[in-house]
Amino acid sequence: MTYGTAIAILTSVYPPAQRGQALGMSTAMTYVGLSLGPFAGGFLTALLTWRSIFLVVMPVAAAVIILSHFRLKDEWGEACGERFDLGGSVVYGVSLTAVIVGFSMLPGTVGSILTLAGTAGVIAFVLFELRISSPVMDMTFWRHNRAFAFSNLAALINYSATFAVTFLMSLYLQDVKLYTAEKAGIILVAQPVVMAVFSPLAGRLSDRIEPQVLASAGMAVTAVGLVFLYLLTESSEVLVIVVSLAFIGFGFALFSSPNTNAVMSSVERRSYGVASASLGTMRLVGQVLSLGIATIFISIYLGSQEITHALSEQFMQSYRLSFAVFAALCFLGVFASLARGRVR
């Protein structure tokens, strides 16, 4: 519910000239949360046990609900009266769930069956949506709105190429470099910190410069950062690792806010909810695909063995293959980003 509406709300209450700035600040807050979460969670766990995390979150969530009720006045409902597409929603939900669960179980037989069945379901969903008057997903956005289609595709590729970075790097730092969990966490925080710092700037720039230019540049920078990580070895210095992660963080900051701005600027006000939800879907599916790619390669080289320092050579083979695929994806993503054309 949050992913499907947050960007739509922001877009609806800010004028087009300030949209990128608002989206950039939202992205920055996301990564501030990602940076602070592990530290705050670790501190609370050590001091008051893990249950205290939920006790802290509850009053914060309550405060957000109260503030939203009293401060968010500019609501909209321009699709009121349209019939809700229950059938399409069910087919879409079941099919996408099958793809996500199945991909997470690859290369097993059950995973392959679920992935294929889910893919067939998604195709059936597309055909169904083309035939009804009030679809849950208007396929004309994908067929006739170049900026919308390629911006969403670029988001899918970007998340598919980057989400598993933290997963793989945490294993690399702890099981190959033999760093403690605390030291690994401090190193890994370099990426979200850089994202948080530069996302507002990138969002503001996207109000003045075509998102096509900024997002494509960000995708290219991210691809270079992934190559840097691919080149890491068992003896790489901490500074090299931090710089590589920061490079990816900078590229993602350049990409994320302008790309979101491009998607939201490509549709009319009545379709903000659909556009926001589409981006959320691209993000979450991309994250699953990214982890799926990494775990498939780990399974190929290590099977079901526990990853330890003794198996670091096998792990590094899966590590390098994963980052080679991720870098190639990001390189292709540059062209998908450029293909969106101008949104102004």
Task: Compose a concise summary of this entry.
This protein is mostly helical and 344 residues long.
Descriptive tags:
single chain; 344 residues; mainly alpha; Growth Hormone, Chain: A; 2 domains; 14 helices; 0% strand; globular
Count the domains.
2
Integer average pLDDT: 86
What's the CATH class of the largest domain, please? Answer: Mainly Alpha
- CATH fold-level name of the largest domain: Growth Hormone, Chain: A
Q: CATH superfamily assignment of the largest domain?
A: MFS general substrate transporter like domains
Query: What is the first-to-last residue Cα distance?
Result: 30 Å
Helix/strand structural class: mainly alpha
What assembly state would you assign to the polypeptide chains in this entry?
single chain
What are the low-pLDDT stretches, counting only 5+ consecutive residues below 50? none
Give Rg in angstroms: 21 Å
Order of helices and strands: HHHHHHHHHHHHHH
CATH architecture of the largest domain: Up-down Bundle
Number of separate helices? 14
How much of the sequence lies in strands comes to under 5%
Largest sheet: none
> What is the overall silhouette?
globular
Helical fraction equals over 70%
Count of DSSP strands: 0
